[in-house]
Design brief:
Layout (H helix, E strand, L loop, with lengths): L2 H9 L1 H15 L9 H23 L9 H17 L8 H15 L4 H13 L20 H8 L1 H9 L9 H5 L21 H16 L10 H10 L18
Helix pairs in contact: 2-3, 5-6, 5-10, 10-11
Length: about 250
């Protein structure tokens, strides 16, 4: 197989996905009528990434420009998150900021370079499940109801399932799945709590909450930095790991 074809698929997977959605819908007849655009996007994107990995493995062709699959996927994930975040003026740049916060916290904690790299990767993909369009709830001109919060947080399940089939990302499934879980266990019965939650999920929980507060929303103004940090401190031991809360003071 021509190397250029695989490299083209690698570098243009997001554009291919966008082009394929209307064609998949129009050519399916009635079979996809009950499938939402969100679920169809998730399915097509996951299948496309798997096809690329399979083609590369079967032909023993290295990733384009010598990059490994992990680096390539991160590039695509960054593009995808920029697209998702950009759907709302309130969330543009959110994922990039969270990734920066996570790296700063992990560095202050004295984690190894390998651990920091892994956590940065997790931070970039932690919201990838927002391809299910729950991000649209962020533009509502009021606080979300409990049912709407449940719908919005379903992106953790979607994101975890998107990366589960990808071998070099599968170890990050718990981090993506639990990054909105409360430290004190106020979650679904049987879910992990406290230090049983992945460290990455606990770090992202702090970084993500801080960034969400300093961003404006349709129903409120952005918090001042000190206000956001005070809210993180108030949540120590309940929403957030109390051992990680002090590192929030390094965020800006």
């Amino acid at each position: 197989m021509d190397q250029s074809l695989i490299r083209y698929l690698e570098d243009n997977s997001l554009n291919i996905l966008r082009d394929a959605l209307p064609e998949a819908r129009s050519s399916s007849g009635t079979s996809l009528q009950g499938v939402s655009d969100a679920d169809l996007q998730v399915a097509l994107y996951t299948v496309l990434l798997k096809i690329i990995d399979t083609l590369r493995e079967r032909t023993a062709i290295p990733t384009s420009a010598g990059r490994d699959a992990r680096s390539l996927y991160l590039d695509n994930a960054r593009d995808l998150m920029a697209f998702i975040d950009g759907q709302s003026a309130y969330t543009t740049g959110h994922t990039a900021a969270v990734a920066n916060h996570v790296v700063r916290m992990a560095s202050s904690m004295g984690l190894t370079d390998a651990e920091i790299d892994d956590l940065e990767y997790a931070a970039w993909i932690h919201n990838i499940g927002l391809i299910n369009q729950s991000h649209k709830l962020s533009v509502l001109p009021r606080a979300l109801s409990q049912e709407e919060l449940k719908q919005a947080r379903n992106h953790t399940v979607v994101g975890a399932e998107m990366i589960r089939p990808i071998e070099f990302l599968s170890h990050l499934v718990p981090t993506v799945l639990y990054h909105h879980h409360r430290f004190d266990g106020g979650n679904a019965p049987g879910d992990p709590k406290g230090e049983a939650l992945p460290l990455g999920a606990r770090i992202i929980a702090v970084a993500d909450a801080y960034q969400a507060m300093v961003e404006p929303r349709a129903y409120r103004s952005a918090f001042e930095r000190t206000e956001a940090i005070n809210e993180i401190v108030k949540g120590a031991g309940t929403q957030f790991d109390p051992q990680l809360v002090p590192y929030a003071h390094d965020l800006s």
